[in-house]
Design brief:
By secondary structure, the chain is mostly helical. The chain contains 14 helices and two strands. The longest helix has about 70 residues. The chain is elongated, with a radius of gyration of 38 Å. Bound molecules: protoporphyrin IX containing FE.
């Protein structure tokens, strides 16, 4: 029988990667896979697996592996530069960077993990938004991209750099590029793929890279402290909204009646102002007619009009 609690837990989803972040990840992974295949096909053109690609893609496409490698390299550099802009110029990006930075708790988490694996403790380490494993992966990719970008550019623009770094410099660049390529490929295939695919906790796959979300169950298992933070934040927002709602209702209760009355008061006020203006005009006209002083007539007229509070037209007519 289905467990309703479990279903409820699975229903609630938490945003892990925005669409923008998923696009960045997609461009990085597709350019990286292309670089691995074309790079090793350049190094080992006679290897068995390279022959499969030769058959699969056709001899013509295979001849373009050098160009494909350079196009994919361009995509990787572009997405890396975009990512740098993202973490500098967007609020979420800056938050991402600060959450991705190493903290003291990462060391205690690491020792706790070892203790857990060797059976010294039954408590798994509780991770925040990024575990020390994810942080290490991220910074390894960042560092690897710089190393591959620099060494690859030296190989790409050989004519420009050869006079500067000489033949031995070029040999070093080739060696660095090749060994870092092995390291990076293994890091992704063994390390990254273990944590997002083969790991029994997430198997058959952590789908956040295309759904963008993690379920409550996944959050409890992988990022319990982050879940706590989010829930506290949600609670705070809820309280703030309730307080706001309450204060709005209170305001309505207090100001509700006088506000109903206010328009009349306001009209009276405006009415008297307009009346004053009209009065002055009328007085001026009156003065013009019989030449008597201003102080004699206005008071009587003002009293008459204000107390009667009659429409302006009538007032004028009456006075004139
Ligand atoms: C921005 C990044 C990169 C640039 C600019 C770049 C550029 C280059 C260039 C120009 C070559 C020489 C190609 C030729 O001989 O026609 C090369 C070779 C190669 N690249 Fe890359 N590459 C980059 C990233 C990568 C990555 C990520 C991998 C694999 C993980 C990789 C693996 C290789 C391999 C295995 C070779 C052959 C090296 C050799 O002949 O010893 N490259 N790369």
């Amino acid at each position: 029988m289905a467990n309703p609690d479990k279903n409820q837990k699975e229903e609630k989803q938490y945003l892990r990667m925005t669409l923008n972040e998923r696009f960045q990840h997609f461009f990085l992974l597709s350019s990286f896979i292309t670089l691995v295949i074309t790079g090793f096909a350049l190094k080992f053109p006679e290897a068995l697996w390279v022959n499969w690609f030769r058959i699969l893609l056709g001899e013509g496409a295979f001849e373009f592996r050098g160009d494909l490698h350079r196009i994919a390299a361009g995509v990787m550099v572009a997405v890396s530069l975009y990512h740098i802009g993202y973490i500098i110029f967007t609020k979420r990006g800056r938050r991402f960077l600060s959450d991705m930075w190493f903290k003291k708790t990462d060391i205690t988490d690491l020792t706790q993990t070892f203790k857990y694996y060797i059976g010294k403790t039954k408590e798994r380490p509780k991770f925040r938004r990024f575990s020390y494993i994810e942080k290490m992966e991220y910074w390894a990719v960042a560092w690897g991209t710089v190393v591959m970008g620099v060494s690859g550019s030296l190989l790409w623009f050989e004519n420009t750099f050869l006079p500067i770094i000489s033949n031995s410099g070029m040999d070093i660049a080739t060696a660095v590029h090749y060994y870092e390529a092995i390291l990076a490929s293994l890091a992704i295939l063994v390390w990254h793929f273990y944590f997002v695919i083969y790991n029994p906790d997430v198997y058959p796959m952590n789908k956040a890279w295309f759904t963008g979300h993690l379920s409550k169950e996944e959050m409890e298992l992988e990022h319990p402290l982050w879940l706590e933070e989010i829930e506290k934040e949600e609670e705070k927002n809820k309280e703030q909204k309730e307080e706001q709602k309450e204060s709005e209702t209170e305001k309505e209760e207090i100001t509700g009646k006088p506000e109903d009355e206010r328009p009349a008061a306001e009209t009276a006020e405006t009415g008297s102002k307009d009346t004053d203006k009209d009065l002055i005009n009328v007085i001026k006209e009156e003065i013009g007619k019989d030449g008597s002083s201003i102080t004699e007539k206005p008071e009587t007229k003002t009293d008459e009009i204000v107390t009667e509070n009659k429409p302006e037209e009538n007032k004028k007519e009456k006075l004139i």
